Amino acid sequence: MRTDAKATRGYGVQVDAGQGRLRLYRIDGDVTLGTYATTIEADTVYRLRVEAEHDELRVHWQTDFLSPDGYSPVITAQDSTHTKGRLAVTASAGEVSFENVAAADLATGLQGWTARSGTWTPDLRGIRGGNGLRTAPFTDGDLVARADITPGDRSSSAGLVLRASAKGSGGYEARLEAGRNAVVLLDRSAGTRLASASGPVRRITSGGTYRVEARATGRTIEVYVDGVRALKTRVSRTKGAAFGTTAAHGTSYFQNVEVRGTADHFTEPYRPTYHYSQLTGSTSDPCGLLHHDGEYHLFHQDEGCRAHEVSTDLVHWQPLPIALPWNAYGHCWTGCAVVDADDTSGLFDGGSGLIAYYTSYHPDKPGGNASVRIAYSKDKGRSWRLHGGSSPAVQNPGGPDAGWTFRDPKVIRDEAHDQWLMVVSGGDHIRFFTSTDLLTWAQISSFGYGGWATPGVWECPDFFPLPVDGDKGEVTWVLTLSTGAVRDTNGSAAQYFTGEWNGTGFTPDQKPGTVLRADSGRDHYAAMSFYGLPDDRRVWLGWMSNWDYPFSAPTGGWKGQLSTPRELTLTDTADGVRLAQRPVPELTILRTSTKTRKDLSVGPGSANPLAGVTGTAYEIEAGITLGTATEIGFRLRTDDDQHTTVGYDAEAQELFVDRSASGLSDFTQYFIQVFLNGTQIIDVTDTAYADGHIALNVFGGRAAYQDTYAQEL
Known about the structure:
Oligomer: single chain
Protein name: Glycoside hydrolase family 32 protein
Domain Glycosyl hydrolase family 32 C-terminal: 587-673
Family: Belongs to the glycosyl hydrolase 32 family.
Structural class: mainly beta
Pfam families: Glyco_hydro_32C, Glyco_hydro_32N
Number of helices: 0
Strand content: over 45%
Helix content: under 10%
Radius of gyration: 28 Å
Domain Glycosyl hydrolase family 32 N-terminal: 275-583
Largest sheet: 11 strands, antiparallel
Shape: globular
């Protein structure tokens, strides 16, 4: 790497089977920079990865593909002799097969990129641009474009070019100017600044990474930076033939560049309409939900990294760059985040900030040697710093080299006992930790084991107090968790306990072996509640998937989605205190029109009273008197022989969702699992609706049917 045309200068890595070693060396002068002893056998596949960043060279060596190793470098060296050059492969003293040769580059769905001017070089951070323009064909005038942009120098400017000509001239540029702390919209044809503003959340500076999104619709262009709209202005031209990236006054970096025509933006087959999903990537566990300074923050898992979005209404989410990528200590698995409003931690210079806790999982260590680590943000979550160096906040219970199950920390404020409280899953139990400074934690008790353990590993715990039936004088604690992935749970399940917390231990109301389901559907997992909501509301989101088919759906470049937000309450029943859920009222802002049908009488031979009522996404509210019917319900998104049924079985006294005829399902044998002849049953209540009246509330949309609620009228 970094070689000249004949590979006589630069750096190389020798895989030397004869001497049983890897050797990193500088080619000119044959200077050894480091070696690593390892057994290298013929006819065996190995994976070699070399990272060259500034003057540091790192060599990774993978020998195991079932339990992948090679996360940490086996050779690290400093050398500043060569800073750029070509890539090459070489073989001597025999034959060798090279496969899957790839280099770091820009992550993008656009094809046909052309460097029009300046220098454009692949980089670990995407593509590095220096004083130039790079374009790709794109003919839609109405579009949504986004990129993660990092100005590299103090005076750097970097931007996205919209509606340019085929060769990159003209059009408009949404630009960041580090030297001026400015977000600017330029008319490139006229050479004029149409609008400008300062950074809407933090200063635009070199070294910072900013998510920039430009929306062009007709004669209006909007520019969002850090998830907040910075500019909106009118323009004169509505067409173009190319999209581009541009860098001026030095070097800038671009990554995750995506452009969609407005008609194609979040409209692919199976894309949910109002359930959260990413444009690209793999969405799974919510892991850090909070409210701070007028913003809702949503963090979730994306292949061992923590993705991040913000919202002002709990419904519409603006994406930000990855908050916590892989780091030297491992992957950043599920966890949580809190607001340190009073600088209890001492990390915020007397102000306030956000602290994230995550499961650190190191692929090279036994069982990942899972531990709890900390990151913090001083700028409303737009950038993050790791805390603690090589020492985790909470070590794996088995020690620094152990593989005990230990994951998914959730932190809350325990006001009644003037302490911070953390719950962590231990596989078949929950560990409780307390802290007074949010940084140092001590275990005080545990709950689980033995008769409390249920099939499947316990994951993603949450713990919080709620008043019973709104009575703040009667407070009960709720411990929620998810279990999977085994057949006894049909892949995944969500359960909860209620009980008393005395500041040091949890005493459940239930007896060992009692399982209370938090959600009876197959696609509600890893649910987590928001920290710090106004008015002490308790709202949570879940991952809409199942460990039987977590990323198997044929959705292309995006995988996974989250549930709609639900508000949690406790209610006293004949069987004890139970968790109740309802869709948050914020969802009503999505309603655009209403169709009403009253006083309908429906029987097996009746004509369809809803014929002609169509829609992609909708909410159904219905009050139903059963009469002599044994089953009632709705068929959603009917088309020839395809439909999904949401209904109520009067004899079984159960609400059900039947997706056996919903369409494509051959991506997994478990998507349609046989529950009473192909129908998945969701328990509603243990007691009959004595008067025969029920209320049904259904949220339906493209490829997402969930949040089905029933109650007595």
